[in-house]
Amino acid sequence: MQWTKLSEHSVYENRWFRVNLADVELPDGRHLDHYLIRLRPVAVATAVNEADEVLMLWRHRFITDSWGWELAAGVVEDGEDLETAAAREMEEETGWRPGPLRHLLTVEPSNGLTDARHHLYWAERATYTGPPEDAFESSRRAWIPLKEIPEMIARGEVPAANTAAGLLMLHHLRLG
């Protein structure tokens, strides 16, 4: 049951995203106009310390008018590799520079609407470099015990899909 894209053209674009309209043929031969959003890759990073605590940000998202814990994340700039972008975002948003990063996972948070790919990385240590350059990104930054993560997700305190997936994977890797 595969859908076939016959054509696609841009209806709006800016530096952050493109909205396209595709002519899609369904398996039964019918055609469907389908809007899709083309996005730049997103790099995400965190660190886990010796006490099995993970570095997170508490922030408000105005689009959903919700508060929640997230990992540092941002758009990969032109010519920037994923790991470099992840380290840059973590330091800019938290004031902590990660040690050597390891790829954790790549997720597609809404692949029925966008081609967004979020690439998550983690480090086993980080060095505090000072107040975050992008302090406006969050109300606070904290080291949260990994053992509390599943319950926090269940209570809705971690609403972002990329963060929830990454934290569950870290929980599994570090605590079993």
From TrEMBL:
PROSITE patterns: NUDIX, NUDIX_BOX. It holds the Pfam family NUDIX. GO terms for molecular function: hydrolase activity. Its cofactor is Mg(2+). Keywords: Hydrolase. Its EC number is 3.6.-.-. CDD domains: NUDIX_ADPRase_Nudt5_UGPPase_Nudt14 (cd03424). Gene3D superfamilies: Nucleoside Triphosphate Pyrophosphohydrolase. The keyword Hydrolase applies. Coiled coil: none annotated. Residues 38-166 form the Nudix hydrolase domain. Belongs to the Nudix hydrolase family. This is NUDIX hydrolase. It comes from Streptomyces litmocidini.
